[in-house]
């Protein structure tokens, strides 16, 4: 199946953010990275806000697809435990730098934040003091760890921590 230009633009934007940071994302740098004209980008994304919203949706959709694949079903067809298991397995990997940057950027705009909140609401327990939420916080820590700590987790340590978190999921 041939990919759409919109998807090619969004993938190029994600790669550019990972390599150069969000502050270096412009129509000029993105046109060069995507191999398109600036007017071609503007056709799909008339404003920077539209482009950033598109990137947030693109990444959030990819994450939800991953969660569905891990769980074997959409969120609404899973139990709380099945959803949390998918979250732990997904977030047990190290965050892609572009994902982490965009998650942080989402705090700057209610529309961006809503994109991620939609996925969170379907898949994660609400913040509280429950054991399930503690497991979710562990998953967040695994996801961000290698970007905020001076010593990355080894593959073996990461796998052991994921297994330990999975054992803590309430049934």
Automatic annotation (TrEMBL):
Keyword check for Protease: no
DNA-binding region residue numbers: 26-45
Domain of life: Bacteria
UniProt-recorded Gene Ontology molecular function terms: DNA-binding transcription factor activity; transcription cis-regulatory region binding
Domain HTH tetR-type residue range list: 3-63
Keyword Cytoplasm listed: no
Keywords (A to Z) from UniProt: DNA-binding
Protein name as annotated: TetR family transcriptional regulator
Organism field: Corynebacterium marinum DSM 44953
Record lineage: Bacteria, Bacillati, Actinomycetota, Actinomycetes, Mycobacteriales
């Amino acid at each position: 199946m041939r990919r759409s230009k919109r998807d090619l633009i969004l993938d190029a934007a994600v790669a550019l953010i990972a390599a150069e940071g969000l502050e270096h994302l412009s129509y000029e740098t993105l046109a060069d990275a995507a191999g398109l004209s600036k007017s071609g980008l503007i056709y799909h994304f008339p404003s920077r806000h539209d482009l950033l919203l598109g990137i947030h949706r693109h990444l959030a959709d990819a994450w939800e697809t991953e969660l569905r694949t891990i769980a074997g079903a959409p969120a609404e067809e899973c139990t709380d435990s099945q959803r949390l298991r998918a979250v732990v397995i997904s977030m047990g990997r190290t965050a892609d730098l572009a994902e982490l940057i965009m998650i942080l950027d989402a705090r700057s705009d209610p529309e961006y934040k809503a994109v991620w909140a939609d996925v969170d609401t379907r898949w994660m327990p609400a913040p509280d003091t429950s054991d399930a939420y503690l497991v979710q916080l562990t998953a967040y820590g695994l996801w961000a760890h290698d970007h905020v700590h001076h010593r990355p987790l080894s593959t073996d340590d990461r796998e052991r921590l994921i297994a330990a978190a999975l054992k803590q999921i309430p049934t």
